[in-house]
Each structure stands twice: as structure tokens, then as C-alpha cells.
Amino acid sequence: MSKPVELIIFDWDGTLFDSVGQIVTSLKFAAEQFNQPLSDEAAQSIIGLGLPEVAQILFPNVPELHDQILQCYGDHYVEHSKHDQWFEGVAEMLNDLKSQGIQLAVATGKSRRGLDWVLAQTKSTHLFEITRAASETKSKPDPLMLAEILEHTGLSADQAIMVGDSSYDLEMAHNIAMPKVGVSYGVHTPEILSQYNPIAIVDNVAMLHQTLNHQVQQKQAV
């Protein structure tokens, strides 16, 4: 018998938060300060990974500059991201799910510094049972941050759903046998997301809200 859904884990950037454009801009700004070529496509492709992994992929030839580039990126992002916000409908979705007794969590490639910044910016810390940032655990697609969230909540992988916009999110969930939902309005295309056999791939937050409610109610009825 399938277990009811008790926990929904969200990626942050490109899933809950409309920040992909600013991340790309800040990465390109940092790269330019150190004379490193970087295209929009390359910058966008790594969103979801931890910052050390980002530096290794985007700037493999200058490891001695990684710390400086990442510091520059972080400073620029914090300074210029004040107008980034949740996608339309996210606040309503999170509050609705929480009102149904569903525990909510965040698993993100952001640093703890960056995550705490946006949690404060959105005044949403209270919505989440636990949040995990890549700087305090292993980067996606390693499933360690999901395992840590499950340990904290005392739940099993089949009682949770991972929601994300990148292959790293869905591969991470796949690696721990956790059901998953892909969103196509963030970083990666439906074709890429479909490789990981998600429950669904949705095109907007309204569809995501409907899909998650259906999963919650369907499993509660079993």
C-alpha cells in the first residue's frame, strides 16, 4: 500500500523563486571582473549545483581564482537581487499545502548565506520545517541533502515529493528513490526533465499547485 504524502521538498531558484535571470547576470559580471568568458547558456546550465561545483565547471582553467570569483558573484547577487521574488502563486501554494498539514522543506544549490538572504527577503522561514543548502552538505545530484531532510522529519522517501526545475533536482531524487515533479518554467527543458520519469512536468505554478494537491489527496484517500 502506498504511503500518504507528508513532505514536499522544493528547489529554490527557478522553482519557487524567479531568480534565474539575476543569477546569470551576476555570474557573468563576476566572470568579466577576472577576464573569464562566459555565455548566458553556460551560466544558466549550472544553476542548481553548489558554488564550488559551479566554479569547477565554468572556470576549470583558473582554480586559483575560484574563491574570488564566487565571492564577487555572491556580493553582486545580494546587491542586485532585491527585486527578485517568488513566482506568481507560490505564496498561496505553500500556505495551502501547509494548511493541509503537509511539511515543507527546501533543498537548494545556494549557499547558506544566499538561502538565508532570500528566506528573510520573502519572510518565509516559518513555512519550512527544514532547509538545506549545498554549502553545508553535498551538492546535487548527490542525495545527501534529501537524506538529511528525511532524517530530520522521520519520514521515508516514498512519503515525500521533490519538486525542481533542473536535471540535478530530479536526478538527486532518483538517486534516493523519491517521487518527483519537474517544472519547465525554470532552467531545463521538459525533454531533459523527462529522462528522470517524474510524476508530472508542469508549465506554471498553478499547474504545480494542482498537481501537488492531487498527489496529497490521492494518497490520503488510499
How would you describe the overall organization of this protein?
The chain has 222 residues and is an alpha/beta fold. It has two domains: 7-18 and 85-221, Rossmann fold, CATH 3.40.50; 20-80. The protein is built from ten helices and six strands. It has helices at 20-33, 40-45, 51-58, 66-80, 90-99, 112-122, 144-153, 167-174, 190-193, 205-221; strands spanning 7-10, 103-108, 130-133, 160-164, 180-183, 200-202. A six-stranded parallel sheet has the order 3-2-1-4-5-6, with helices on both faces. Helix 3 (51-58) packs across helix 4. The protein is globular and about 55 Å long. The mean pLDDT is 93.
Largest sheet: 6 strands, parallel
Number of E-state strands: 6
Into how many domains do the coordinates divide? 2
**Multimeric organization:** single chain
Number of helices: 10
Cα separation of the termini: 8 Å
- How much of the polypeptide forms β-strand, as a percent range? 5-15%
CA-atom Rg in angstroms: 17 Å
Return the average pLDDT rounded to an integer. 93
Helical fraction: 40-55%
CATH superfamily of the largest domain: HAD superfamily/HAD-like
The CATH architecture of the largest domain can be given as 3-Layer(aba) Sandwich
Residue stretches low in confidence (pLDDT < 50, at least 5 long) are: none
CATH class of the largest domain: Alpha Beta
Helix/strand/pairing category: alpha/beta
Major β-sheet strand ordering: 3-2-1-4-5-6
Which series of helices and strands comes N to C? EHHHHHEHEHEHEHEH
CATH topology descriptor of the largest domain = Rossmann fold
Molecular shape: globular
